[in-house]
Amino acid sequence: MTRLSLFNSPLLLGFEQFEQAIDRISKTADGYPPYNVEQLGEHRLRITLAVAGFTESDLSVQIEDRQLVIRGRQADDQDRVYLHRGIAARQFQRSFVLAEGIEITGATLERGLLHVDLERQVTEPEVRTIRIRTEDAAQGAGRAGNGPVIDNQHPQHEVEGQK
Tens place of pLDDT for every residue, the chain, 163 residues? Predict the structure, then answer.
């Protein structure tokens, strides 16, 4: 059975990674730990996870294949004798798919909350000119081995007087 996708359009070339990201998002585990995502500025975000009881050494924040992965693992203290245990030593993994250009700027643990700060790197759009060549088929000049010629020498936004 074939799967229909928004990205199957012939006008959308090379967007397979977006489809894979949507698949990863849909496979999210349970809702533990709870989290917030807030916007701190035009290009800054903060993800806050409620990780009460976890220490800095119990937590890890990593980027794996454009995915922010936050893991928590608590060791069970075998020396304690519980008469009632309502707080389990549990582990978790929470993942967030990152868009291109999003960078992690830091992580802090404060009063049971893990804050992970992100920033979108703003880049100027690149404009490239593809030179069109004319080939004379009568002379036997085929296209084999000749790829497109790209001219990066002249950016679109040159300052007057500079080259």
Answer: 455 566 666 666 676 766 666 666 555 556 889 999 999 999 999 999 999 989 999 999 999 988 999 999 988 778 888 899 887 778 999 999 898 889 999 999 999 999 999 999 888 889 999 999 998 866 655 555 555 555 555 555 444 444 4
Domains and CATH numbers, the chain: 30-120 (2.60.40.790)
- What CA–CA distance (Å, rounded) separates 73 from 93? 9
pTM of the model: 0.62
Residue 111's SS3 state is coil
In terms of residues, how long is the chain? 163
